[in-house]
Amino acid sequence: MGSEVVFSCEEGYELIGSSHVQCLETGSWNGVFPYCRALSCGRPAVPENAVMMGTNFTFGSKVTFSCVKGFVPGDPYDMQCQASLKWSRAPPACQRVTCGDPPHVGNSDFTLKGKTYLSTVLYTCAEGYRLQGSEEVVCQASGEWSSPAPLCASIHCGDPPALRDAATIGDGHALGNKVHYVCKEG
Fold first, then answer.
1. Whose C-alpha in 40, 118, 124, 157 is 20 to 30 A from the C-alpha of 94?
2. What is the pLDDT of residues 93-128, one digit of tens each?
3. Where is the Sushi domain positioned along the sequence (predicted)?
4. 69-98 burial, b for 16+ CB within 10 Å, e for fewer?
């Protein structure tokens, strides 16, 4: 009887209710017991092209960020709410994945439309060459260009038609080459 209890909370928590409660002559306490509630750091901003996992933003809680496909950093990224009511670090900046130089394709020209995720390269074969495969390669989330790269193969016309009583001179049958016919004697 006459005893008094003083309540306090640890760092990162706030006391809800009265900090003092007294024991009455009746043997009961003179008020409602207080409780400690975790303080909040507030919802962190979610950067563009990122996703956040976690809905508790109070002291000691963690949230995890990751970047969407095609953006880095690709590994999950944790932040914790500290007693100072600040997050342990800033959210990640998610940058678009970059690919290196596009694959070299012999006997071709190309149109490069960027080197970042989902950018494309369009190949056009030089005269006398035919495209084999897709004309387009795409920068992928892995930072590599899609494969296989196309090939520009020379166009072969096949053997020229045979003429009676004539011989052909020339054995290159690619587009642009010439074959001469020479009449046989007689």
1. 40
2. 899 999 999 999 999 999 999 999 999 999 999 988
3. 1-38, 39-96, 97-154
4. ebbbebeebebebeeeeebeeebbebebbe
> What phi and psi, each to the nearest 5 degrees, are found at residue 154?
-65, 145
Question: Is there a contact between 114 and 96 (Cβ–Cβ < 8 Å)?
Answer: no
How much of the chain is helix, strand and coil, in % rounded to 5? 0, 40, 60
What is the pTM for the complete model shown?
A: 0.63
131 with 148: CB under 8 angstroms? no
Both tokens assigned to 42: 């507030």
